[in-house]
């Protein structure tokens, strides 16, 4: 069998050496690119980490401010009840010729698996008014107070023979909510400047429970 003939001559030592040098140069270039990419990746990771820390600090500050605002709102509502609503309810009774004996903020009772909380309870020997106080009153709040009034005497048996009246008070209240609350038989107390006024119409007749 005749020897195989190659179309191209066998590579010389110089050809092999040149290929080796080219491969080495390519390897050095690949390594340099890999290092550059690694450095860029590290830089991007550091930048991402810095941004995440900044966002975390901003989020913590935001949460702190929101918590403070909620606390401030709670304090304002407490001051609203203590300094504005309570005197207005007392004056409301006195205007009807009814003497006020007791004013109790934040009254609660729990009996037989039921509970009730009343923001402000104003009492004399024969009548009481339970006031629900909100920063902004809604129709749902009025409905909740209706439910509260239905179980008030059951959970406060001491007042079972009292004439129980209901009232709602708020720093902000829309006209539609005012009308709705009055239609349910509640006294409606609204903030007017630094004072709280009774906004019921002259024809209003309170509901007694």
Q: Ranges with pLDDT <50 over ≥5 residues?
A: 70-75
- Shape call: rod-shaped
End-to-end Cα distance, whole Å, is 122 Å
Order of helices and strands: HEEEHEHEE
Question: How many beta-strand elements?
Answer: 6
Our count of helices gives 3
What is the CATH top level name of one domain?
Alpha Beta
Derived from helix and strand composition plus strand pairing, the structural class reads alpha/beta
Task: Tell me the strand percentage band.
Answer: 15-25%
What would the average pLDDT be, to the nearest integer? 80
CATH topology-level name of one domain: Trna Endonuclease, Chain: A, domain 1
Helix content: 40-55%
- Alpha-carbon Rg, integer: 39 Å
CATH architecture of one domain: 3-Layer(aba) Sandwich
Strand order of the largest sheet: 1-2-3-4-5-6
Largest sheet: 6 strands, mixed
């Amino acid at each position: 069998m005749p020897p195989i003939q190659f179309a191209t001559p066998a590579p010389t030592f110089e050809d092999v050496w040149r290929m080796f040098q080219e491969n080495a140069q390519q390897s050095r270039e690949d390594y340099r690119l890999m290092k550059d990419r690694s450095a860029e990746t590290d830089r991007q990771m550091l930048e991402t980490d810095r941004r995440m820390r900044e966002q975390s600090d901003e989020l913590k500050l935001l949460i702190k401010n929101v918590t403070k605002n909620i606390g401030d709102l709670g304090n304002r509502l407490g001051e609203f009840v203590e300094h504005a609503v309570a005197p207005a309810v007392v004056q409301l009774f006195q205007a009807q010729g009814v003497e006020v004996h007791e004013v109790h903020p934040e009254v609660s009772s729990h009996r037989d698996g039921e509970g009730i909380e009343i923001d402000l309870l104003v009492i004399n020997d024969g009548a009481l008014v339970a006031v629900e106080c909100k920063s902004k009153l809604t129709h749902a709040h009025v409905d909740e107070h209706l439910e509260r009034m239905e179980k008030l005497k059951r959970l406060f048996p001491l007042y079972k023979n009292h004439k129980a009246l209901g009232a709602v008070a708020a720093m902000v209240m829309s006209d539609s909510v005012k009308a709705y609350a009055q239609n349910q038989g509640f006294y409606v107390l609204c903030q007017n400047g630094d004072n709280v006024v009774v906004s019921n119409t002259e024809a209003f007749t309170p509901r007694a429970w």
